[in-house]
Amino acid sequence: MTSTSDKKGEPVVLHGKREELYYFAYGSDMNTKQIQERCSSPKAIGVAKLPDYRIAFFGETKIWDSGLETVLEDPGHNVWGVIYALSSADRQGLDLWQDARLDGAGANFHYPVVLTDTEGVTRTVLLYKKDRTDQPQLPSQEYLDFIAEGAAEHNLPAEYIEELRTMASKKARYPVPHRKKGAEFLMLHSCTDCEG
């Protein structure tokens, strides 16, 4: 079976396989430089809001000396983000970065939602959501600034960018981002360090 995207923005299906995945990035993956480091051919195709959720931080990343973002249900609030079209190979790589495992043992899990972007196109998208949200952690101000930079790159609403910049935060205890690159990084650190 071969088909292409319809008016509702459904993923491309070729020979019975989904060749594209729509990913809703609401945190550090909004930053173009980061998503390009993690994926071979990410394509930003829209901006959307996730209604009745708010961004929150749990766990930790040594890269940013920070809690890591997730979304929590919160009626009346919105989380804005960027919709990317990804290949299946990019999705697998992103799963590694986000520590999302098929057996459910990772720090994040796949969370599908239906969103309508600012152009009126409705898509089923995947976002990453944290598995454990029992002990909130403050994000570092540096990490919030990095997230807000990505939001500004994609022209998210100014009031939302300001909300990100002024959330409760802490100063990183050391120069950030603190990261090693490539395979060396992935072999030396647990996947909870991959996020961020």
Keywords:
196 residues; alpha+beta; Hypothetical upf0131 protein ytfp; 3-stranded antiparallel β-sheet; 8 strands
Structure write-up:
This protein is α+β, with helices and mostly antiparallel strands and 196 residues long. It has one domain: Hypothetical upf0131 protein ytfp, CATH 3.10.490.10. Helices cover 23% and strands 35% of the residues. The chain contains 5 helices and 8 strands. It has helices spanning 32-38, 88-98, 141-153, 158-165, 182-188, and strands at 2-3, 13-14, 17-18, 21-25, 43-61, 66-86, 108-116, 122-130. It has a 3-stranded antiparallel sheet with strand order 1-2-3, with no helix packed on it. Strands 4-6-5 form a 3-stranded antiparallel sheet. A hairpin with a 2-residue loop joins strand 2 (13-14) and strand 3. Helix 3 runs antiparallel to helix 4 (158-165).
Q: Round the Cα radius of gyration to an integer and report it.
A: 16 Å
Taking the sheet with the most strands, its summary is: 3 strands, antiparallel
The helix content, as a percent range, equals 10-25%
Number of domains: 1
Into which percentage range does the β-strand content fall?
A: 35-45%
Order of helices and strands: EEEEHEEHEEHHH
CATH superfamily: Gamma-glutamyl cyclotransferase-like
Task: Tell me the name of the CATH class.
Answer: Alpha Beta
Mean pLDDT: 86
Number of strands: 8
